[in-house]
Amino acid sequence: MTTTLYGYWRSSAAYRLRIALNLKGVAYEQVSINLKDGEQNGEDWRQIQPQGLVPVLEHDGQRLLQSPAILEWIEETWPQPALLPSSAQARCLVRGWASVIACDIHPVQNLRILKAIAGDLGQGPEGMKAWAQRWIGSGLQSLETIVAAHPRTTPFLHGDKPGLAEVYLVPQMYNARRWGADISNCPTLLAADEAARALPAFRDAEPENQPDAEG
After folding, report:
1. Backbone angles phi, psi at 195, to 5 degrees
2. Nearest CA to 192 among 134, 144, 146, 138?
3. What domains appear along the chain, each with residue ranges and CATH number?
4. What is the pTM of this model?
5. What pLDDT is attached to residue 103?
6. Were both Cys, which of 78, 131, 164, 181 would link to 136 (CB 3.0–4.6 Å)?
7. How many Å apart are CA 12 and CA 22, to the nearest integer?
8. Beta-bridge mates of residue 32
């Protein structure tokens, strides 16, 4: 069986999947869909993903869409090491933290939204940057308040190892740094991000370490 990840080096949704697959020890191939050059809008890609989005994960001939659903599939297909806690309440807690990013922060600073801000709405590069800074910064500061309310004994957001929360967090922190969002008031998130990125599974998934990364 083969596993192929269709993505783009700077796609945070594809970044999530790289981290998860690395943590599970799953070997996969990568196929780049160049979002910068508009390859996602071509007919060939639209036949695979009608929304024109990445990532798509192909496993043994089956193509899977949308990173939250794919991450759940990865967890069910390769249960160990687990990305989610053992209790239903704790799983709900972690899924909620991940959803703050997946549902509230990421969608409004997705590349197609930022391009619309810059071009269609005439705000240009500075307007695009200001938009990204506003929604990433405020979103992560809210997440900081949420997660900081739960005591922990390690830098990770839940438990003694990285899990689904870090799978979502690390790519979003990368975007925060990329756009210059103010995350100085997020010590809990910064500590979790630093601890996770020190691990090989996260380092190998970093955008700059991908075969299609641009200099």
Report:
1. -65, -40
2. 144
3. 3-81 (3.40.30.10), 88-201 (1.20.1050.10)
4. 0.97
5. 97
6. 181
7. 15
8. 7
Q: How do 62-65 and 56-59 pair as beta strands?
A: antiparallel
Longest CA span, the chain: 50
Query: In sequence order, what are the beta bridge partners of 7?
Result: 32
pLDDT per residue as tens digits for the range 30-51: 999 999 999 999 999 999 999 9
Residue 107: count other Cβ atoms within 10 Å of its Cβ.
Answer: 12
Phi and psi (nearest 5°) for 197?
Answer: -70, -15
pLDDT given for residue 21 in this prediction: 98
Give, to the nearest 10 degrees, the angle between helix 164-179 and helix 124-148.
140
